[in-house]
Amino acid sequence: xxxxxxxxxxxxxxxxxxxxxxxxxxxxxxxxxxxxxxxxxxxxxxxxxxxxxxxxxxxxxxxxxxxxxxxxxxxxxxxxxxxxxxxxxxxxxxxxxxxxxxxxxxxxxxxxxxxxxxxxxxxxxxxxxxxxxxxxxxxxxxxxxxxxxxxxxxxxxxxxxxxxxxxxxxxxxxxxxxxxxxxxxxxxxxxxxxxxxxxxxxxxxxxxxxxxxxxxxxxxxxxxxxxxxxxxxxxxxxxxxxxxxxxxxxxxxxxxxxxxxxxxxxxxxxxxxxxxxxxxxxxxxxxxxxxxxxxxxxxxxxxxxxxxxxxxxxxxxxxxxxxxxxxxxxxxxxxxxxxxxxxxxxxxxxxxxxxxxxxxxxxxx
Length: 365
Ligand SMILES: [Zn+2]
Fold this sequence. Notes:
- One of its GO terms (molecular function) is carbonate dehydratase activity.
- Residues 128-359 form the Alpha-carbonic anhydrase domain.
- It is an enzyme of class 4 (lyase).
- Its cofactor is Zn(2+).
- By secondary structure, the protein is of the alpha+beta class.
- It folds into 2 domains: 13-61; 63-358, Roll (Carbonic Anhydrase II).
- Helices cover 26% and strands 25% of the residues.
- The protein has helices spanning 13-22, 28-31, 34-62, 64-82, 101-108, 143-146, 152-155, 263-266, 269-272, 326-334, and strands at 118-119, 122-123, 163-164, 170-171, 179-182, 185-191, 196-200, 205-209, 212-222, 228-229, 232-233, 236-243, 249-258, 280-285, 297-303, 311-324, 356-358.
- Strands 4, 5, 6, 7, 8, 9, 12, 13, 14, 15, 16 and 17 form a 12-stranded mixed sheet that branches.
- It is globular, with a radius of gyration of 26 Å.
- The chain binds zinc ion.
- Zinc ion binds at residues 220, 222, 239, 305.
C-alpha cells in the first residue's frame, strides 16, 4: 500500500495495492504531495474518458457504411417478422433496396391516378391514393394499410422524417463536407398532386457520399417542414433527391422559416399556378443556385417520406435554417388539392438508429 489513504479514503489496502500495481511504473508518484497525486489521478481519468469517447465516436463514423447496412438488414428482417401473415400479392416486392422499376417509381413518385385527375392540364381535387389528412381512411397513419407494397410506411423501422434532437446526435467530423458537383441542365416543373417538383432531364451533376456518387434527379417542397429540430417544426423543407446506379437514394433536406424569399424557389413561383402532372419546361436550371447556407449537417438512414416509404435512404439534413416568404409557401400550397395543402408526414420513431452530426471542427455549434 503505497498510495496515501487520504487519496482514496475508505478503500482497503488490497484495493490500493491493485491501484499501485497499475501505477508501479511511476515510482515518483508515491512521493508526490497529496494535491499533486489527486490532480494527476483526476487528469488521467478525465483524459482517458475523453479519449475513449472520441475514439468511439470516430470508430462509429468510420463504420457509417457498416452501421447503415446492418440497420437496413435488421430492419428488413424485422418487417418480415412483424408482418408475416399480411396479405400480399405474389410476387411480393422487397421493402428495402428495391431494384429497377419499383425504385424508379418511388423516386419519380408517379401517382397512379385516374383520368379524372387531370382536367385541362390542371390538378384537381380528385381521388388520390393517399393524403396528409390525419384521421382519414388514407391519412398518414393508414398509408401502410392502403397497399401491400406500402406496408413499410406502417411496419418499417427506418422511417422518415424524424425529430433531430441535439443531445442525441453523435458528432462525426470524419463524415466530411458535402461533395456536390452540380451542373445546369434542362428541367421540368411538375405538379405531382401531393407536391410541386422540379425534375432535371439529363445530367445535372452529382452528390458524393463515402465515395459513392448519386446523380441529381429532382427537388420538391414540403410545408411545413417534415424533419423537426428538438421538436420544432419549421415552415418549409426542400428535398433534393439523388440516386446512384444501384438504385439507392440520397436526399438532402433543407429547413426554412418565414422571412425574406428564397431566390431559387422564386424562379419557379410564376409557373406554379395551373401546371399539371405533365409539367412545364423551364429550360436550363442550375442546381448550383440552391443555397445550402453552411457545411454542418445531420446524417441518418431513413426512408422516402411518401408511399411506398421505401427504406434505405441516406438522409442529410442541413443544420442551417434558411428563409422563405409566406407568399412563396402560399403559392406552393395553392397549387395542390385539398389533402395536400399541408404535405408533411408526421415524425417517425427513431427505433435506436444512430444520428450523426457533421462539423469540421468536431463541435456541435
Ligand atoms: Zn420529400
